Amino acid sequence: MNKVLLILLLPIAFVRCAQDEAHSVEATVQPEVPVAEADTTTIPVKEDHLIETIDTLIAPQALIENGNTADFILECADEVKANAMLDIDYYREEWKDVPNPLIATYRGNDFGDYFHIQFEDESGATYDFGFGNNTYGDVKLFLDETDFQDNPKALNKTYQVYWAWKISTYPCCQGGYETVKAYHPSILKLELE
């Protein structure tokens, strides 16, 4: 009788354990990285993890230095993926030796083929943050965020530009204006030099 009871109860125990396991799975959340108000430019780097910031994610250093180009692209239509990868390859090469912070003068923005936010360093090299997921700190580059008219108080001023590869959503590629979500050079904060 005990054996029969055991045989009948065993399947019930297995089903019950499987249900408990399914309900006990919890999302793991990386603890918030405290950001000191006095020093919002310090970014801790974890080689194998994304770092959660106030509003988005920053690419890990290992991805920037050694990652595959395809890993920079998070969302992209199949028909533009090859062009998006060429763009990322171009930006990786152009930005690989850019100092952080970058000391550069704000030269303004324009809507040419795409939106451009132009900075120029003392050697004349230009840096375009138009596709970036930018935050400017206390600096106001534009009079308002609807027409992006340059703020005369910010124009032609030199800044320390703190930047990182952040997740950005932007139009791509070669005039196609397909939306791509990828890591892109972005301003974290500006400080007047």
Question: What attributes characterize this protein structure?
Answer:
alpha+beta; two-stranded antiparallel ribbon; 4 helices; 29% strand
Structure description:
This protein is an alpha+beta fold and 193 residues long. The protein has one domain (53-192). The chain has helices at 2-24, 61-66, 69-72, 81-95; strands spanning 51-52, 57-58, 73-75, 102-111, 115-120, 126-128, 158-172, 178-192. A six-stranded antiparallel β-sheet has the order 3-8-7-4-5-6. Strands 1-2 form a two-stranded antiparallel sheet. It is globular and about 45 Å long. The N and C termini lie far apart (86 Å).
Task: Produce the secondary structure layout.
Blueprint: H1 2-24, E1 51-52, E2 57-58, H2 61-66, H3 69-72, E3 73-75, H4 81-95, E4 102-111, E5 115-120, E6 126-128, E7 158-172, E8 178-192
Antiparallel strand pairs: 1-2, 3-8, 4-5, 4-7, 5-6, 7-8
How far apart are the first and last residues' alpha carbons, in Å? 86 Å
Number of strands: 8
Question: What's the Cα radius of gyration?
Answer: 24 Å
The pLDDT mean sits at 77
Identify the strand order in the major beta sheet: 3-8-7-4-5-6
Helix content: 10-25%
Sheet having the most strands: 6 strands, antiparallel
Q: How many helix segments?
A: 4
**Shape verdict:** globular
Report the order of strands and helices: HEEHHEHEEEEE
Kindly give the count of domains: 1
Sheet/helix structural class:
alpha+beta
- Unreliable spans are 1-56
Strand portion = 25-35%
